[in-house]
Here is the input.
Amino acid sequence: MSEIEPIDSEQPGPSQNPTRLYIILAAILLVIIIVVVVLLITKGLPPWNGDGEATEVAAATATFVPTFTPGPTKEPTLTPPPAPTPTLEAPVMLDTDDPLFVFQNAGARPSVEWTGFFGQVEDPSGNPLEGVSVIVWYRDGAPASSVAQTDGKGYYEIRLADGPFAGQWSIQLLTDNYGPASKIYSFDTDENTESGVQQIQVIWAQAP
Here is the structure.
């Protein structure tokens, strides 16, 4: 019987078959790939950038604009036109037998500044009357001035010329519609500024 010689532990053993090792590694790698593919399909692809969380995109919400519904149309209200203001006719030189105002007195003075008439209109008690119309006529009946009105003190002033001026004039008070309110009184002016007549004062009183 042959003796079995002990094996030296320091010596290498028989070499292993490398093909079997490769098959085992390939099987493990295949399992890993399958697991990764299954996870990708079930969990979704991770983002390429960012913190690893998928960003949700909010859906746009449509804003509805309320539809304007016009109300009922009102019938237009017709506004009557304003009543026309009556136009006074131009005053006409007329005398009267029933005067509303009577002549009281008159005076005259020279002036180098202007030629014309001035004075006052009073009620029967001597109080001033405001708003009384006064006019000066040429002797031929044409108006020599516009219609003047007495003020709050009953005073009036009508200037016919700037400076001394010779002429023949008639003065009269008028009603509100330019009818005769007094008799007609006539006066003369001249160009003598020392002792002549340029400014004539006429005082009137309301008939009692």
Summary: Confidence is low (pLDDT under 50) at residues 1-15. DSSP finds one helix and eight strands in the chain. The two ends are 190 Å apart (CA to CA).
